[in-house]
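hey all, quick one before standup. I had two proteins in the batch that finished overnight and I want to keep them in one place so we stop losing track of which output belongs to which input. First protein below, input sequence then structure tokens straight from the run.
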Amino acid sequence: MPDWVAVAAKASLLQPKEQRTRAPFPPVTDDDMKQAAKEMDRLLQDDPRYCSENFSGRLENMVFASVDSSAVNSVTDFRAPEGPLSV
């Protein structure tokens, strides 16, 4: 490196948080999802890459799992006894 280039400061290592919270996702009804799929089909009908995707039809064929209400608002302690885990 040329001597006129300033050396960057060494980056500090951040420690993982033990708990994070977030606002719950707003409720989405089946009708909301059907409307969104219809809008996607309408908006993409003239695009040659996506005109035959049929999002409305795909949505009808999907099966969704229910939400575990005890796990909705937090992600807790991903640390292993010997140190942080990669998630």
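OK second protein, same deal, sequence then tokens:
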Amino acid sequence: MFKKNLFFVLCFVSSFFLSQQNQKPVDLKVKEDFTHQWTKTVFPKLWAGFEREVVRTFDSKNQNMAISYVQKHSKKSKTVLTVYIYPKSEINNQTLRDEFLSYLVAINKNSQSYVEMKPLFGKLSNDKLNVHYIYSLFKNSIVEADFFKGIRPVEKNSLLSIYESGGWTFKIRISSDEMTNEQLTGLKQKTENYFNVLDIAAIKTLPVNDAPDVLLSPVVKRDSMMAKATIAAAEAKIEWMKNNSDIKDILTGFNDMKIESEVYATEKMLEFYKTNKNNWEITPETQKYFDDMIVISDNKQIKNYIYDKYMGVIDYPEGETHKKSYFQFKTDHKISKELDEIYFKLFYNLD
């Protein structure tokens, strides 16, 4: 895997922040079982005590779909399960994180109180593929209609799960008045098994015989040192993935939630700077960047820096414990906010 030469693109474009297509949704009138023709996924009218309520399409080809099921416990109590399935024309190593953070922003816009979503990580496997995913169990408060009060705030027990499933995104959203976290997790597992996430992931896998291309932020063009050091970091991340990933992992996505790959890329970027700092043009902004990074490295704060940079959406459980102390460290050492920027992404075109 990863055999061809790298291709570098000097831009970040909005299409790489992958999400569902922004079209006016249409609810289809379907009385019997509904088959998503592009993946051959069947959504029955009745399933596991749930009744299918909505079959919604976001495009004219019915590729980008949301299918909702409802299980009513009483007049005022229910569980809503929604499965989202939609295609990707590109995938990058930030896609899973971007989708999770986008959802966090969206749900907080619609919640009556702040919603905290702690990311958790999982994997589905068979003899051909591994599908990695990010999920979260959380509580959120929404407004519902009430006969006597007009509206009333209602706290829901909820779950979100997003899967790196090759050229198709599979996402589960559950909201319940009664289910415990254990029951929500059980329903998630039942959903991903019944609707065959692994089979969906096998439909369009990543072209792993080729190295991923590298997308560079326009910021790196400000001087030669920033550009060359960023390329060194990107090449180091690809090297780490090549040496530490099973082929089954990267057929379906980048699986780039391990903090170790970020640590390796960061250390190689710093190594490049220290070796070449007198050889290449460097602006004051880039000098400040590397001065701050050296302070972080010398104080053994690289993992906490990465955790903070990605807003906790990375597999580093200890990061939450060190969150307050790292914030104080940043303040004490006047660490620039520019260090939070993402300077490169690895990506594949899937069309």
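Flagging for whoever picks this up: Residues 11 and 217 are 5 Å apart (CA to CA). Residues 224-244 form the longest helix (21 residues).
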